[in-house]
Amino acid sequence: MTLPDVGQLPAGLTLVYRDGQLVLTGNERQFGKPLSVDFAAGRAAHRRQFGGGRGQLVAKACGLNKGLNPHVVDATAGLGRDAFVLASLGATVLLIERVPAIAALLDDGLSRAANIADTAPIASRMTLRHGDAAEALAALVADAAFDPEVVHLDPMFPHREKSALVKKEMRLFRELAGDDDDAPRLLEAALDVATHRVVVKRPRKAPPIAGPAPQHTLEGKTSRYDMYVHRALTR
């Protein structure tokens, strides 16, 4: 298989195919475990079957708990976990990822999911675009001919050393993505594009993103969703 062109990777990181799956890997002591996207097995499969359905916080924040299947732009797609949950519950999702290597992992994961019976219907509701949502969200949405009822944001936030040591799997991801210092600009772009609401995932005790105050908040044990509502979702 031909490796995708993702430009220059940070020193010590490599993209390889292992068992037919694209993997980003490096020294585990430095970067933690290798990264890949697998929507058909592991954590994604478990969450799809046992995660709580439309009662999950992300589903409630995006309006799926009302029996709706909105069009959701996941403007900070990352490894696609929340996007896959939303699509598995019936939403149509546009994933936008700005880091080339992570976008390549997503593309590989979606391609494989599209060829597996259990996940093919879900993958058919997921579309990927590579680009910087803070810089060009409107253009990326227009390019995909997508109706952006809801924009979901999960920006990377500055972390303490303690939390960085605990979450080993995020070391490699952070090496590529860094922190989202442009989160206020991303929120502004999302508010301009979303026709109905913007939902922002935050650590439970973190302040809101700088800018307009959220009208509603949904809070869980470790995280919360700040909600900026233009109008009610209906069908």
TrEMBL record:
Amino acids binding S-adenosyl-L-methionine: R81, D82, E97, R98, D154
Keyword tRNA-binding: no
InterPro entries associated with the record: 16SrRNA_methylTrfase_J (IPR007536), SAM-dependent_MTases_sf (IPR029063)
The EC number(s) this enzyme carries: 2.1.1.242
Known catalytic reactions: guanosine(1516) in 16S rRNA + S-adenosyl-L-methionine = N(2)-methylguanosine(1516) in 16S rRNA + S-adenosyl-L-homocysteine + H(+)
Major localization listed first in the record, in broad terms: cytoplasm
Cell compartment(s), UniProt: Cytoplasm
Pfam families: SAM_MT
UniProt key word Transport: no
UniProtKB keywords: Cytoplasm, Methyltransferase, rRNA processing, S-adenosyl-L-methionine, Transferase
Its job: Specifically methylates the guanosine in position 1516 of 16S rRNA.
HAMAP family according to UniProt: 16SrRNA_methyltr_J (MF_01523)
Family affiliation: Belongs to the methyltransferase superfamily. RsmJ family.
Protein name in the entry: Ribosomal RNA small subunit methyltransferase J
Highest classification ranks of the organism: Bacteria, Pseudomonadati, Pseudomonadota, Gammaproteobacteria, Oceanospirillales
